[in-house]
Amino acid sequence: MAQVELAGIERIFHLGDAEVHALRAIDLTIEAGEYVAVMGPSGSGKSTLLNLLGLLDLPDQGTYRLEGRDVTSLGPDQQAAVRSGRIGFVFQSFHLISRLSAAENIALPMTLAGIPPETRDARVRQALIDFGLDARADHRPDQLSGGQRQRVAIARATIMQPAILLADEPTGNLDRATGHEVTRLLEDLNTRGTTLIVVTHDPAMGERARRRVLMEDGAIRRDERPTPP
Amino acid sequence: MRLLDTVRFAAGAALGAPLRTALMALAMAIGVAAVVILTALGDGARRYVVGEFNSLGSNLVIVLPGRTETGGLGIGGLSATTPRDLTLEDAAALLRAPGVVRIAPLVVGDAEISTAGRLRSVFVVGTHADFRQVRQVNVAQGRFLPDEGLRHGGNWAVIGATLREQMFGAAPALGAHLRIGDRRFRVIGVLEASGQGLGMDMDELVLIPAPVAQAMFDTNTLFRILVEARDRNAIPTVKREIERILRARHDGESDVTLLTQDAVLGTFDRILSALTLAVAGIGAISLAVAGILVMNVMLVAVAQRTSEIGLLKALGASAAIIRRSFLVEAALLSLAGAAGGLLIGYAGAAALRVALPDLPADPPAWAVLAGLATALITGIVFGVLPARRAARLDPVEALAKRH
Lengths: 229, 403
Ligand SMILES: Nc1ncnc2c1ncn2[C@@H]1O[C@H](COP(=O)(O)OP(=O)(O)O)[C@@H](O)[C@H]1O
Ligand SMILES: [Mg+2]
Fold this sequence. Notes:
The complex is a heterodimer.
Chain A: E1 4-15, E2 18-30, E3 35-39, H1 46-53, E4 61-66, E5 69-70, H2 76-86, E6 87-90, H3 102-112, H4 117-130, H5 146-158, E7 164-168, H6 176-191, E8 195-199, H7 203-208, E9 211-216, E10 219-224
Parallel strand pairs in A: 3-8, 3-9, 6-7, 7-8
Antiparallel strand pairs in A: 1-2, 1-4, 4-5, 9-10
Helix pairs in contact in A: 3-4, 3-5, 5-6
Chain B: H1 3-15, H2 18-55, E1 60-65, H3 88-94, E2 100-115, E3 118-127, H4 131-134, E4 139-142, E5 156-159, H5 161-168, E6 177-180, E7 183-191, E8 196-197, E9 200-201, E10 205-209, H6 210-216, E11 224-229, H7 235-249, E12 256-260, H8 261-304, H9 306-314, H10 319-355, H11 365-392, H12 395-400
Parallel strand pairs in B: 3-10, 5-7
Antiparallel strand pairs in B: 1-11, 1-12, 2-3, 2-6, 2-11, 4-7, 5-10, 6-7, 8-9
Helix pairs in contact in B: 1-10, 2-8, 2-10, 2-11, 8-10, 8-11, 10-11
The structure holds adenosine-5'-diphosphate and magnesium ion.
Magnesium ion (MG) binds next to helix 1 of chain A.
């Protein structure tokens, strides 16, 4: 059983009278622990695919089985529970809450999940150390550099120890050096077993991924796997 | 999400927009302060009147001729048909009833009075020596009417303080002669200034013996009889006895009305309590206005925090968590406003007490609780719509919103 199984996925947006076929006939299977780079021109449906994988959006047709379970038929609360426990999101624009400190932002998924404060504090302290943020725990996002912000966001995305990490152009707002640093961080997490699915325009990162999914016009044009040595 | 975490998160969100929060809390505060001050005023007035009445002595039973169903107010205003008049003999008979300490018959009428060239019309009350204890009036100069029994009386007059001022000015009043109607009276006493009481201005009347007043007004009837019971507990017995005695004297007909201070007081109490409630209602309207403001401000908050809501959903928050967080935020704002309003309200009530020392303007506990509860409920009720709107946001669209 694959971790992610998409079959015959269609996603159509209606803009007035016009129809935008954001995803068409998507069949995709991803095993646990894979490192997948989703690439393609702007507007090709990469973000829509990621949102769908993260249960933020639902397909108009097709089935999505996550860890063997058909998640498209789940109710909203169950989907929220899946997002909470199994999925981590990293966004291009970080999406940190500006009034909360770095530590509070990292703790947020646990707070929402109702995890007791003692457990939270211990895990946040460890995460701050792991991501080199221990000196920044009480800083607010506007007191952090771009790279630090994205590290906070990644710490937050992984604090619930999700099975799948979804990152939509995580280095898009960062300079080259910081981007590399963030990329390495994500790859480290993948090395330790988390499935990593990254939307990226960076060919270098695409090269490093063991699998590249190339999208065009809402469809998967090529699905490149490394040839076994 | 744990309750404490929800409260902390909501409080943080509220404090994240201080101006918005302050405005909303202020609106709530004004509403609660209005309820507190207005009810303090209304309830203060009620307690003032009740207190004044109690100081008149609550052992009084007032006997009126004629039967009337209204058991409340009605001094001078009772127009019940009079099947049989009350007489001085009735009054004398009541004096023998068990539990009755004293009685004071009242004969009233208007008359011209004159002295040394001054002339005016006054309210004349014919009564008995015991009127002084029954109505607890104090004599400032001289003495009160002497006890000559109920059927006899000399031409003595005791006058009110204002009347003395008007009729005699600086000249001595005691021992002076006063013409009332076509009779000459000697002034033997002047009452202490006291003001209004039981529907008559005690400062502007003349008291003379009841039989003299009857002769002057050419009548043998009484306006009413004041009966003083031994104590408050004796009142029911006394009322029963009065009924029995007068029925026997009036050919078996119950043709009198008995008023007690309790009944008069009860009427005042009811009127002023209703007034206080009405006034509290007016305060509550300002709370409802505050509620509408809460709703609008919370809708703005939802719009401003759209991308945050999207993020919370992406991080696994259920619709219920988001709804609750916005509701708690509205409730916290309302509570903060209500607390501020209580402070303002108590300060206002204290200021009232300084400005009007006679008025016990303390906010009643029920009004304070009702004000707080209304604020909280208003905040939550008007917070429901914004909270539901937040919970229903599509996460993908919400995340795409720039803040
Ligand atoms: N909420 C939406 N409403 C209408 N059209 C949308 C919406 N989201 C995405 N689209 C359209 O779907 C297509 C795919 O978008 P997207 O997945 O964001 O592309 P990418 O991330 O590859 O740039 C685009 O044409 C975009 O305009
Ligand atoms: Mg995109």
